[in-house]
Amino acid sequence: MASESGALIDARRAPRFPYPVLVVVVIALVACGLLLPLDGAFPWWLLALLGVGFIAWNVSVREPMSYDSALIPVVAALCFIGILTVSRLDLALGVRQGAFMLVGLAIVIAGQRFFLQYRRLEKVTYSWVLLSLLLFVLLALFGTEVNGARLWFRFGSFTVQPVEAIKLFMVFFMAAYLSRYGAALAVLPARAVGKTLRLLWPLLLVWGMAIASLGLQRDFGMAGLFLGIFLAMLYAASKRLDLVIVSALIFVFGAWLLAQSFPYVGARISVWLDPWSDPLGRGYQAEQSYFSMAAGGLFGTGYHLGHPGFIPEAATDYPFAAIAEEFGLVGGLAVVALYGALVIRGLRIAFFAADTFSSLLAVGFAATLGIQVAIIVGGVVGLFPLTGITLPFISYGGSSIVANLIMLNLLWLFSRGEQAQNSADANPLSPPEPIGGLPQTG
Amino acid sequence: MRHRIQNVAIVFACIFLVLAAQEARVQIVQRQAILDRPGDPRRAQSAQGRGTLLDATGVPLARSAGARRVYSAGPALAQLVGYSSPIYGESGLEAALDSVLAPRSQDEATDLASLFGRPEGKPQSRSGEVVLTLRRDIAEVVDQALPSQVHGAALVLDPRTGAILAAVNRPTFDPNKLVAEWGKLHNRADAPLLDRSLDGLYPPGSTFKMVTASAAIDSGTFTVDNTFHDPGYYNIGGFTLHNAEHEATGTQTLTGAFALSSNVDFAQIGVAMGVDTFYDYLSRFQVGENAGLAVSVAKDNLPPAPTVSDSELAQMAFGQGSLAVTPLRMALVGATIANHGVMMRPMLVKEIREPGRPALRTVPVVWARPISGQTADTMRDLMIAVVRYRTGTAVRLPNVTVAGKTGTATHPGGAPDAWFVCFAPAEAPRLVVAVVIEDAGYGGAVSAPIARAILAASLSLYQ
Fold first, then answer.
1. Cβ <8 Å between A382 and B8
2. Could you tell me if residue B17 is inside a domain?
3. CA-CA distance, A90 to A326, in Å (whole number)?
4. Which end of chain B is more exposed for a tag (fewer CB within 10 A), N or C?
């Protein structure tokens, strides 16, 4: 069976069950349980249940622990914090957040056979572009407008944010494209503009369109995120720092142009520059988030003892301020450190990945998580203008939770390749091609 | 490619370090500056569980009932007790003592238990409470004694300790109806939010002759038996000074000049003393010095000594010229005379009780000894004479000897400000009362009856 695809992971040794996601969900449900007894009694039995489940899992898993061991606990902790934070702001949303995690789990379980064959996806480079374009067109036609941005599909009582899926598609497209052309780009000198463009134009076109359409949808956070993913993957694949710098400059110029022509963008930027300039108007949300963080101080007010509910849309836009208020600088830094560990772990998986495509996908996913955190946390603490980007695993939002869990699951699967390459009995069916497809130069 | 992945990791590490540093900047470095800004709705929560302000007998002056703040003295102590409002912020003692009164369940919530589950029931009140020197019963007496339509202030203190017992202002407002009345209060030209008793500056007029006479006697410049001639006018430095209504008191002893409140005689006394001696006694009486009260007190306006000409000195000697003082200042001068020449530092806070800490009690402190006990007793006799025979007869009480001094302070703005400063019982003074009514006329006619009503009702309340 394995002989039919050299790029496939050996299905017999692959996990039959997505354990990491299971752990995430169990811990998240325990978090829900902690919140439910409102009479104040601490549900110790839930902790005991968690312990029993953990032991049972370790005993029952016959697989050698060949997958990345840090990824799961870190994401579990983040999901736990996410449920705590969202429930604290709105109990109903917290319960829904738990439900979204279950949906993510179901998708990962049902699709694990598909996800395991992710290497086949390398062959269908432009399908991702077509899918993304289709989603953009559908959005423009049938999307629901919220706060001036047309980013949602509405199905009855709940909405889907397709850009979260587009985010994954674009990483796939970029990894597939660059694993083919990255090596060629790397050897081109900086002055060979013509040749570079000949190699890069499909990529530039697709990403330019994606970023432009996000810009037109006024989703500037997402546009920045797409640009960051693009730059990180382009650099990792091609070593071309000159391309990275030129692209970044083009984006900054584009952002400046947009700020000039859209009052909406200009308003966000002026609030960022002086959050106290319009306390009852546009600056209200930012101002309230500063009060919230200041109230927290070093150690925070304690869970449920602060007032992060004064921040409008805290569960989606400002969960980080809520954490910083109730758990203080210490809690906020712990969350930042968890994300840092996640990003470093993802890049480590990229570092050891068995092939260029997996490696580039891992870089893309790690960069996605890292840049999202940088944009939203940076927005909350005042480093950047605030945008509507979600804080992965913590912000309330079903599409984002599901997309991030799928991303995590894929990263975790890539770490399997590390095993294949490092162990002596490496799967003979996945050829140990040199990383990057080229002799290492430095 | 591995090398580049490492570089990407380094870039992310740097970005995350910057995020952490900026978060620390907001939550540690800029924290206080942010918390000091207006508009934080967390302050709206402050009435819930906010500590109580008690009067000296344990009556709550400001207490929280749910989310509401209740002020039991209402308009009588509105300016001094102040208000604590989620919308309009804080004032008076509510603002000054906020660090004690503010509920601090937030600060103490870092214990592990509070990280799990919700705190049971309502959050416990962990705020402190403050016992003030004020007396609600006396404040209400003063509030009833002051006519409702005037502008002015009345201050009552204990000369033996410096404890301020009541400070009532006109116009005033009801802090229990702040939200409804704010719009009017804030825009009114006659400033009902101002604590005139402590933060208002007035020319002291003839009440300041207490200082001048004390200085003249204590410095040995004059005795009470020295005589002065008052033809009704006095030429000095190109100016001609008059008594009120151009009255002439003729030849009088110092006692008579004080009792009849002759400006001409006191101008001569001031000029005879000279600027140096006069200013020496002003500084002994701590005129222009900060009393160190928890709330805002206006700084007395005193021209610098080198700039004072003879005509200016002559006017200052009877409380005019560019001299302007607070009602508190004149009460303290009266208290010094009542307390045998010892000026106690005024105080408002008697005791601070904070959870988990021993109670802090305020001890009466001697602020200054401006004049000798002998001078003070002489001055007391002069002030008894004022009440017994002359300008201050309106303050006389049956069975109680009252010592007092009138003041009728002219100013360019309108009718004179009417002053009266007195203490009783003169033999063993327990209460000092200072009353000023703006633009009202003669102190002896307008303010002395108010002071009398205050003394009559307060002396039995305050032993």
1. no
2. no
3. 15
4. C
C-beta atoms of B110 and A299 within 8 A: yes
Give A-chain residues touching B5 at CB under 8 angstroms: 236, 347, 350-351, 359, 363
For chain B, say whether A379 makes contact (Cβ under 8 Å).
no
Question: Which chain A residue shows the shortest CA-CA distance from B108?
Answer: A301
Among A314, A317, A291, smallest CA distance to A375 is for A317
Provide the CB-side half-sphere exposure for B66 (13 A, CA): 1
Cβ B56 vs Cβ B131: under 8 Å: yes
Q: Which residue, chain included where needed, has tokens 């968690």?
A: A50
Using CA coordinates, name the residue in chain B closest to A369.
B12
Q: CB–CB of A340/B16 below 8 Å? A: yes
Q: The whole model's pTM is what?
A: 0.56
A283 and B CB contact within 8 Å: no
CATH of the domain at B429: 3.40.710.10
The answer to whether position B244 is within a domain reads yes
Residue B392, both tokens: 């201050």
State in Å, rounded, how far the first CA of chain A is from the last one: 39
Interface check A336 vs B, CB under 8 A: yes
Give contacts of A307 with chain B, Cβ < 8 Å.
41-42, 45
> Could you give the CA distance from residue B441 to residue B418 in angstroms, rounded to a whole number?
5
**Closest C-alpha among B71, B68, B87 to residue B79:** B71
Which of 199-238 (A) contact B at CB < 8 A?
Answer: 232, 235-237
Contact A383 B18 (CB under 8 A): yes
CA A358-A361-A364 angle, to 5 degrees, is: 155
Instruction: Report residue A350 as tokens.
Output: 């990229």
Each residue's pLDDT, cut to its tens digit, for chain B (463 residues) gives: 788 899 999 999 999 999 999 999 999 888 888 877 766 777 656 677 788 999 999 999 998 887 788 999 999 999 999 988 776 777 889 888 887 887 764 444 434 444 454 444 444 557 889 999 999 999 999 999 999 999 999 999 999 999 999 999 999 999 998 888 877 887 788 889 899 999 999 999 999 999 999 999 999 888 888 888 888 888 887 778 877 666 778 888 888 888 888 888 999 899 999 999 999 999 999 999 998 898 888 899 999 888 888 888 998 999 998 899 999 999 999 999 999 999 999 999 999 998 878 889 999 999 999 999 999 999 999 999 988 887 778 778 888 899 999 998 888 888 899 999 999 899 999 999 999 999 988 888 899 999 999 999 999 998 8
In a domain, B19, yes or no: no
With CA atoms as reference, report the closest residue to A387 among A217, A260, A204, A141. A217
Q: Find residue B233's DSSP bridge partners.
A: B242
Domain-embedded: residue B131: no
Within 8 A by CB and 6+ apart from A260, the residues are A266
Q: For the sheet containing A158-160, what is the strand order?
A: A144-146, A149-155, A158-160
Interface membership of A351 toward B (CB under 8 Å): yes
Into how many domains does chain B fold? 1
- Domain containing B310: what range? 138-175+188-348+364-458
Q: Return the residue of B nearest to A283 by Cα.
A: B39
